[in-house]
């Protein structure tokens, strides 16, 4: 694949490592768009649940993807996820969608469609893109790649805090177990597994603030630029 014409910064890593917050801030600092690939997998999962599509039926998921448009709109202080033009930014964050997205994410032909959509966005404009396979599969020629990690305990603590702040009742042990299960599913699927790209800069955010991670990334990007 040829080097991208646009500036592409990829951030891969497990759930709860801080990718979204960091990616949005890096994108703002560099005047790039922010691309949340997980939101695309979530949006298709939401549509499948709503339409009672069998999540284990890859053919059905491929057909569904073909009948779907997913747009990610960048606004000054928020990012909107549009599923067939409906704003589903909140609806894709439920526990049900979170726990069922692996069905869509493990289906190779669905992933191929998602990758195509993501590349089409990156061809048009510079992006900071976050996900699991964005540095390895989607944009192997990205300008800068990062792998953002953190201990399971810390990632779980952050998620619990986030959910409780939104007024949710959280069972901490259950949430930690679910996070670990998602890590395993992400790392062991046959297509697009969560993996550090060979040329990615690894940042462990366990003991770092958001701002420290952002500064570390901006420093690495500046050094290479
Ligand atoms: O980043 P997230 O938690 O919103 O992602 C939701 C799910 O989508 C996650 O369990 C793994 C999957 N995903 C993926 O398989 N590949 C990506 N590039 C991004 C997310």
Commentary on this structure:
The chain is α/β, with parallel strands linked by helices. It has one domain: 3-Layer(aba) Sandwich (Rossmann fold). It is built from nine helices and eight strands. It has helices spanning 19-30, 37-50, 58-66, 95-105, 108-124, 134-138, 152-165, 172-188, 210-224, and strands at 8-12, 33-36, 70-74, 79-83, 86-87, 127-131, 144-149, 201-204. α2 (37-50) packs across α4 (95-105), α3 packs parallel to α5 (108-124) and α7 packs across α8. It is globular and about 50 Å long. The structure holds 2'-deoxycytidine-5'-monophosphate (DC). 2'-deoxycytidine-5'-monophosphate binds at residues 15, 37-38, 41-42, 101-102, 105, 131-134, 182, 186, 192.
List the helices and strands and how they pair.
Elements lengths: L7 E5 L6 H12 L2 E4 H14 L7 H9 L3 E5 L4 E5 L2 E2 L7 H11 L2 H17 L2 E5 L2 H5 L5 E6 L2 H14 L6 H17 L12 E4 L5 H15 L1
Parallel strand pairs: 1-6, 1-7, 2-6, 7-8
Antiparallel strand pairs: 3-4, 4-5
Helix pairs in contact: 1-9, 2-4, 3-5, 7-8
Bound molecules: 2'-deoxycytidine-5'-monophosphate.
